[in-house]
Amino acid sequence: MTSVSYPYQLSASKVRAEFFRLLPISLFVVAFGAAFGLAAMQKGLEPLQALLMSATVFAGASQFAAVDMWGGEVSLLPVIAVVFAINSRHLLMGASLYPMLRDMSPGRRYSLLLLLTDANWAVSAQEYQRGTRNLEVILGGGLAIWMAWIIGTWLGVYFGGLLQNPKSLGLDMVLGCFLLAMALGGKKSPRTLVAWTVAAVSSLAAWKWLPPNMHVVIGALAGGAIGFFWLEKKPDEHAKEGSS
Amino acid sequence: MTIETTTLGTLALIAIITAVTVVTRFGGVFLMSFVTISPRIESFINTMASSVLIAIIVPMAFSGDVGSVAALLATAAVMLATKKPLPSIAAGIAAAGFVRYAGFA
Q1: Are residues A90 and B43, on separate chains, in Cβ contact within 8 Å?
Q2: pTM of the entire structure?
């Protein structure tokens, strides 16, 4: 453990650029936040409590699920289980960024992960596949989304009635469309297509037959297994990465 | 075990939900720090990364209404044609809105 050096340095200008890059998507996040704020009010949370939850938890789907279980009393274990299951994809998303994150000091590494969401992760992971290292999008893009989520929650708490039915505007599909665009924008090789097929089939099977919210992890691990057993031959890749 | 949603109870619940989420945010990276990244592990990680997306989207399409499916199809079509994310997403949302407005869903 003598003098470990961490070569990955965040560039401030790139962080700023990534903030503005994810700003358009953040507008949609405001709409989702508003829907959450409204739902939280209807379930009896105080405005400040809803805002606090959005600021600290910062994971939309699990917040909706948690608020859905709200009442005069809340059973602890079911809430923990549901929140963990919905957010367990973060485990895999974080792991997939590890080859980049390990080049950063542990303090920064874990601070950055507090801002990890589907959207900024998808950008970073896709760029990494193409050989670009981009952790700035986790910080800059994550801040844009975090602010949008809080502003949205605030709007929903106080003006929620204005957005009774975000579904009729197609707003429930923003994240799905975004993630699909990211997937299709990535590198496609025969190996990837086989992995995607396996991921699709196993996530559907898990969705149908296993307890709720397990399908993302099951599908992703099944797809990853294809990569584990089927290595792509790229001799120049090792030369570039050095001896690790 | 249950927690009453008094002011203090709610704060405790929010703290617990936050902690669980932070565990998922940190956990994967923490565990990876004990793993030696061989080419095989790297290949696993890379394939898993794009499989996460598929594993989110496909069940979404199957559990959703006609509007959701239209949104994903429109996004895929525009993305494959233009390779530009923002127009693709806009097309997807517009498709969902249109299909639902037209009453197919």
Answers
A1: no
A2: 0.87
